[in-house]
Input
Amino acid sequence: MTPDINEVHLNILLLGRPQSGKSATGNILLGSYEFESRLSLGSVTQSCELCQGRFSSFFRRNGREATLCVNILDTPAFPHSYLKASEVKNDIHEALLEKFQRGLDAVVLVLRADVAFSEEDFKCIQLELLDFEWRNYFYIIFTHHDRFEENGLKLEEQLSNAPRALKVLLESAKNRYHFVNSVAPWLHAEGRPVLEKLLSLSQQNKYKSLKFKPSASSLQHTG
Output
């Protein structure tokens, strides 16, 4: 079957620490409650899970209405409450091989905006866990924006005084980030701006994906 040229697919990988709002962010992007997301003293997601969404007439391409299809891979948190780092790594690698044979279009790191960011967090995020050149595909989503709004604080001002480790991380993402309201009643309204930015990121990369190679634990550029 000939692929529809006015249908764009985005393969999105979600990463984050326990209780960062990673699965909730996946639901926001999909506009529906697909991933299990709840408060817990430990990690909720135990293995990788793929969910898909389809948004008709999401944007215009070549003078025509185009459909956006998103494939979102939620992953076990790192560090995990119950799984070893090697187990998390192997699960993600296997899921990438099975689910994202075409490659990755966005690597999304989910961080809580209302929790202090430390040097230890930065070390964990460097993901020796994944072993690939992710900077051109890297995006940061800050959750719990609502907590700041409730207290009359502006997150942009907070970022200007962020710890050095967080500033370095933002530089790695080329200052691509977005704030989401974790208790938004309308997921579609909260998710569309993020999807637009991830689509723009894919366009900047000329729709080229990061291809996962089974022979080596790395991801390389492919067209």
Observations:
- Residues 7-222 form a domain with the Rossmann fold fold (CATH 3.40.50.300).
